[in-house]
Amino acid sequence: MPTRTLRLNYPPSLLRQPILNQLIVRFELTVNILQAQITLEEGWLDVEVLGEDQEIEQAISWLEEEGIEVVPIE
Fold first, then answer.
1. Closest Cα to residue 62, out of 2, 6, 16?
2. I need a labelling partner for 36 at 20 to 30 A (CA). Which of 17, 61, 68, 72 fits?
3. CA 20 – CA 18 distance, rounded (Å)
4. DSSP of 7-25, one letter per residue?
5. What pLDDT is attached to residue 32?
6. Which is nearest to 31 in space by CA: 40, 22, 42?
7. Into which CATH architecture does domain 3-72 fall?
8. Which residues, 6+ apart, have CB-to-CB distance to 28 below 8 Å?
9. Spatial distance between the Cα atoms of 14 and 56, rounded to a whole number of angstroms
């Protein structure tokens, strides 16, 4: 199965929302948090996502619709 590494940049309004939980429940993905930094004003997570390409693409679209900036990490 393909693996992608992504940085998820959270706006302040979403910092207390269970975005990762929703991501795992909605899509058939395995998510591994590599590193993170969360403050009251901003937050980001570097995650490794394992799953089918189509599921990963749908998950990225959903995250962006929710207001999360998704940046691929090479």
1. 6
2. 61
3. 6
4. EEEEPGGGTTS-HHHHHHH
5. 96
6. 22
7. 2-Layer Sandwich (3.30)
8. 51, 52, 55
9. 21
Contact indicator for 5, 47 with CB cutoff of 8 Å = yes
* CA pair distance 74, 15, nearest whole angstrom: 25
Domain ranges, ordered by start, for the chain: 3-72
Q: Hey, how many other C-beta atoms are within 10 angstroms of the C-beta on 73?
A: 11
For position 7, what pLDDT does the model report? Answer: 97
* pLDDT tens-digit profile, the chain (74 residues): 789 999 999 998 888 889 989 999 999 899 999 999 988 888 999 999 999 999 999 999 999 999 999 999 98
| pLDDT value at residue 1 | 79
3-state DSSP call for residue 53?
Answer: helix
Q: 36 and 44 in contact (C-beta within 8 Å)?
A: yes
